Amino acid sequence: MSQGVYASNRHRSAVRRRLVVVGAVLAILVGTAVAGYAAVIRGDGGPGHWQAAPTDAPGGTGGATQAAPTEDAAPDQVITLSATGDIVMGNAPSRLPPNGGQGFFDAVREALKSDLPMGNLEEPLTNDTGVRKCGANSTACHQFRAPPEYAKHLKQAGFKLLNQANNHGYDYGAAGYENTQQALEAQGLKHTGAPDQITVVEVKGVKVAVLGFSSYRWSNSLIDLAAAKRVVAQAAKQADVVVVQVHMGAEGSDKTRVKRGTEMFSGENRGDPMAFSRAVIDAGADLVVGHGPHVLRGMEFYKGRLIAYSLGNFAGGQGTLSNSGRLAWGGVLHVSLHSDGTWAGGEFRSTYMNGSGRPTPDPDNRGLKALRDLSQSDFGGSAATFGSDGEIKPPAA
After folding, report:
1. How many Cα neighbours within 13 Å face the side chain of 331?
2. Whole-angstrom Cα distance, residue 196 to residue 211?
3. Residue 17 sits in which domain range?
4. Mean pLDDT of successive 10-residue segments in the chain (397 residues)?
């Protein structure tokens, strides 16, 4: 209603002034009631959900509506996630780091800091269970384990969640797998990767679901895309943000490229990385974190969501993982997401495995340079772009 009708007139009598004020108050009350009734008729009224009726009066909104915030709408929150590739701290009993592994991750603790640091634990934390993946005389088979107490090193590094969905999860059988979970839980660490396991972590009031996939029976299936989509869709019902950890693709220093189609390694089906990653995003995933090839692979955006196809090797204590050439390069992926899972920013911090296999910041940024080239070569218009400081951006529209 125009404020002009309330202009005072110094020549009016005191009685007239009082009548004008009373009339104005009545007009406001009637106008408010009419507006409220109009809102109810439109169906947008009710406690905590109201909208002002349009007005064409001078100084009004010219027919536009102005929605007030709803009482039950959650405020947007930006959370930060960090993730690494393969982690092997050593191999018991004879190839463990000195001093019981104390300080193993000290050089990268700052690089890992985020609201939810995650890693791919490529070995069981268990004593010898008597069940081993490799035969006594096997030379081509690799099996790893570290003592259960090594879980404290992961805690001290800052990790909050570890993925078990990989080819070494069952190196010491079901008992070794369960011992690993118990060791992590004793340090207050979350784990994911078992079939149908949806691990939900609350971060700044935002529920984040993390699922692990591989081509092995002790994890959610990388091969069965329909089953993968079902479990991701279920996770999306339970959480605001869904993160997929996936061990996929063939291994080796020459396996840096992402191509369409199934990848095989040592007779094993290691999945179709592109088909899998896009399928789980279609089903509701907001971030895909890949590992498995032991080398860095490119990154792309699909429907606004980042796919990191492989984060390479992060730690391979006492020579458990080769640190020759590209096999030594890894890094820490940082991603910021809104509470609805949409992109808010990202960064890649290059690391390498030093002579003893410990993760170390890389001043030469070899991993970052490789990611920039690989992403553009493999994905073109959908490739992630990388700044000189490691900042990650979606491709230009």
Report:
1. 29
2. 8
3. 1-73
4. 37 38 40 39 33 33 37 77 98 97 98 98 98 88 97 98 98 98 98 98 98 98 98 98 98 97 96 98 98 98 98 98 98 98 98 98 98 98 98 93
Neighbours of 314 (CB within 10 A): 29
- DSSP sequence for 45-90: -STT--BPPP--STTS-TT---BPPPTTPPPP-EEEEEEEEEEE--
CB 57 within 8 A of CB 1: yes
> Do 67 and 83 lie in a common domain?
no
Residue 202: both structure tokens together = 């609350």
Instruction: Tally the domains of the chain.
Output: 2
CA torsion, ordered 153, 159, 163, 167, to nearest 10 deg: -40
What pLDDT is recorded for position 166? 98
Answer yes or no: do 242 and 257 share one domain: yes
Q: pTM higher than 0.85, yes or no?
A: no
Residue 37 and residue 90 in one domain: no
